[in-house]
Write a structure and sequence with these properties.
- This protein is 27% helix and 18% strand.
- By secondary structure, it is an alpha/beta fold.
- The chain has a single domain, classed as Rossmann fold, CATH 3.40.50.
- The strands form two sheets. Strands 1, 2, 3, 4, 7, 8, 9, 10, 11 and 12 form a ten-stranded mixed beta sheet that branches.
- The protein is globular, with a radius of gyration of 19 Å.
């Protein structure tokens, strides 16, 4: 098993909130997992090679929901590179994917405006990919989760169509993040899957939380996140409600200061992929350390960084560097893989 969460309860609480398994209810991950890296600036070739190195990835006609990284209207590495988006779609189809639907919610502006400024909607049309802008979803399409034991004071809301057995793929960037969480990779990218504001018409008491009310109208989940000193843990906790089948990371260029929309850059020239989000983020943090990123997380052991430690404690992926194998398909990549594995410890 390559990680994930236990089955979500189909019995909602009084306000529609769903129970999330506690860490002790989730089986410990035992298997060694692969993180594939390709040293390249050619996203078309590099992305296909990285996914091929995972061997077991096969979509076999399944419809796919693809999440990119369009938090702001700023160009790569703040947002998904146009070449990476096209390469990801073609790689998915090459692996047998059926209908592909692009999903996104921007944090710095309305999603539609952000994607129009970056010409993403026109690109998706050229690629014959449909899209779903999550900040335009009607209220009934959101599902509330309490996230017991987390620092989310009113839980989170997540799209109903993704809480079922759907095939989710993420295409994330790698960068420092000055607003909390220290760095942004696949775990942080998942914040763009949850609602910014509550869809509830009125607050109601929840069955399992006693007198703690669910969010009323206008509750701002992102303010709850960004006002908290526990953002790293909250980022990990938000990943408890879904499990991506594949995550690809574009680290051809990365922010090593500030972020997420601006900062000094470095050029690791890496495309990475994994089916395990904790393993991929751990390797991503090692890449940032290798690139000289100036963040708090750059001075600690990778599995002690707050996002990664919390995600590992929740069994959302691997829980130690010994369970990660960084693999590549040429000498330059293998040499880099060995250096990154050393940094994981």
């Amino acid at each position: 098993m390559l990680g994930g969460v236990a089955a979500l309860s189909e019995s909602p609480n009084l306000d529609g909130a769903s129970a999330i398994p506690t860490p002790t209810e989730v089986p410990e991950i035992q298997d060694i997992v692969r993180v594939a890296i390709v040293k390249t600036t050619n996203r078309e070739e590099g992305l296909a090679r990285a996914v091929a190195l995972l061997e077991e990835v096969d979509f076999s006609g399944n419809d796919v929901y693809l999440k990119g990284s369009y938090n702001s209207p700023n160009p790569f590495p703040a947002t998904t590179h146009p070449d990476a988006l096209g390469a990801m779609v073609r790689t998915l189809r090459g692996k047998g994917a059926g209908k592909i639907t692009f999903i996104e919610r921007s944090g710095m502006g309305r999603t539609r405006n952000v994607m129009e400024q970056l010409n993403v909607l026109a690109t998706l049309k050229e690629l014959d990919v449909s899209f779903c802008l999550l900040d335009e979803l009607p209220a009934e399409e959101w599902r509330h989760f309490e996230l017991a034991g987390s620092h989310w004071s009113r839980g989170i809301e997540f799209p109903r169509f993704l809480t079922q057995d759907k095939c989710l793929v993420q295409l994330c960037n790698l960068k420092t993040h000055r607003f909390g969480g220290e760095f942004s990779a696949s775990l942080k990218n998942s914040i763009g899957l949850i609602a910014k504001h509550s869809s509830a018409a009125e607050p109601r008491l929840t069955e399992d939380e006693g007198q703690r009310p669910s969010p009323g109208p206008g509750w701002n989940y992102m303010k709850d996140l960004h006002d908290s000193p526990n953002q790293g843990q909250m980022i990990a906790d938000a990943n408890r409600v879904h499990k991506p089948k594949l995550i690809v990371m574009d680290a051809v260029e990365v922010f090593v200061t500030d972020g997420p929309e601006r900062g000094e850059t470095a050029t690791p020239e890496i495309i990475a992929a994994s089916r395990d989000r904790v393993a991929l983020d751990a390797v991503g943090l090692a890449i940032l350390q290798f690139a000289g990123a100036r963040i708090v997380g750059a001075s600690v052991r990778v599995f002690e960084q707050v996002q990664i430690k919390r995600a590992a404690d929740l069994n959302l992926g691997v829980n130690s560097p010994e369970k990660i194998r960084v693999v590549s398909d040429d000498n330059a990549g293998r040499m880099l893989a060995a250096r990154l594995e050393n940094l994981l410890h």
